[in-house]
Structures are given as structure tokens and as C-alpha cells.
Amino acid sequence: MELLIIRHGQSEADLLEVHEGRADFPLTELGEQQARLMAQYVEANVRPDIILTSPLKRAEKTANLLQEAIDCKLIEIDDLREFNNGVLAGMARKEAAIKYPLPDGGRPIHVPIQDGESELDFRFRAEKIFNKIILDYKQHNRVAIVSHGGLISNFLKAVLNLPNNNKTIFATGDTGMHLIDIREDCSIIKFLNKQDHLMK
């Protein structure tokens, strides 16, 4: 099966210099345009059989615009939400740096931010949803997954069997796409962070 992993378009939080995470900001007008261009590209080149999406507004709207172009089933999955950043959600970055400064050397991966999840919890959530998807949707040739930058980075670490303490970050731009062919003996990376559709 192939996994087409897609980040949502630009959200209002991208313009406000705030921590987004679980804060539920909608797409901007540009974000919706980006999502429509992505949907056109996907419809013409890498059509999925089904779409799975985070229920947060920015991902859900991106997935809905893709569904309009593809006309296939769409399912919301809670575990595809972005990192639970607790008290930081929606807070201005400058304010957060004063109220909740990082400890010297950074926050240990097993320690959560107040009211949120730890980096280790986040990674395990990505591992869980990756394994659930490849088991529950294996009858599909191609599954589209619409999610968020942090979740996608951890999801790709799960795909590649990277260790929990690995420092690699997989960047994904607005409506960037990754295509991975999951096979029994290996995983084939066909492309990462593809954004050709935004070059029009």
C-alpha cells in the first residue's frame, strides 16, 4: 500500500507568531488556495482510495477540499492531531518564553509541558497510528493522510524505524506531500515534501 502524507495549508496561527499545536485555528485564504492546488495535483497524479484526517480545523478543511476533488470516503482520526502542547496552545511565542521557559538543556523527552504530552508520548502516538493505519486500511492501494508538521515528522520516523531519541526532523511545508510505498520487506520513499503544485 502507498501512504500519501499531506500537511494542511497555511493557517491563521502562521501569521500571528503563536504556538499552534492543539490550538484550533482555521486556514487562511492563501491556505485554502494552497489546498485546492494540492487537490488538483493529487486528483491528476496520485489519487487515493480513502482520506484520513486530523479533526483540527486546518487539517479538516484541507482534507475536505481534497475530498471534493477526489470524491472518496473521508474519516477523522483523533490520533492524527498535532502535538498536544498544553498551556502553550494559542499563546504568543514571546509570552510563552517568559511564562514557560525551557529548562537548561531543553525539556527531557519523557517530561510533558503542563497540560500536554511529552515528546516521547507524541512519538509513541505516531507509532501507534502508523501501525493501526497499515493494518486497518491494508485493503486500499493508496491512503491519503492529512495532518500536521510535527505529527508527520514523527510518523515518518515510525515509517523508517528510527529510534525514539533520534534528533532528525522531517520538514513539511504548507500542503507539502510525502509518498511512501509500504511493502512487507521494505518501505520505498517515492518523494518527500513535494510542493510542485504551489509553483503555478
How would you describe what is shown here?
Helices cover 36% and strands 17% of the residues. The protein has 200 residues and is of the alpha/beta class. The protein has one domain: 3-Layer(aba) Sandwich (Rossmann fold). The chain has a six-stranded mixed sheet with strand order 3-2-4-1-5-6. Helix 3 links the parallel strand 2 and strand 3 (73-76). Helix 2 runs parallel beside helix 3 and helix 5 (119-136) packs across helix 6 (149-159). 37% of the residues are buried.
Which short descriptors sum up this protein?
6 helices, six-stranded mixed β-sheet, 200 residues, alpha/beta, single chain, globular, Rossmann fold
Cα distance, first to last residue?
30 Å
**Roughly what percent helix?**
25-40%
Strand order of the largest sheet: 3-2-4-1-5-6
Question: In total, how many domains does the architecture comprise?
Answer: 1
- Strand/helix succession: EHHEHEHHEHEE
Q: What's the number of helices?
A: 6
- Low-confidence segments, given as residue ranges, are none
Q: Determine the oligomeric state from the structure.
A: single chain
Shape category: globular
Structural class assignment: alpha/beta
Corresponding CATH architecture: 3-Layer(aba) Sandwich
State the CATH superfamily name. Answer: Phosphoglycerate mutase-like
User: Major sheet: size, sense and barrel closure?
Assistant: 6 strands, mixed
Arithmetic mean pLDDT:
96
Fraction of residues in β-strands: 15-25%
Rg for CA atoms? 17 Å
Organism: Ureibacillus aquaedulcis
Protein name: Histidine phosphatase family protein
EC number: 3.1.3.-
GO molecular function, one term: hydrolase activity
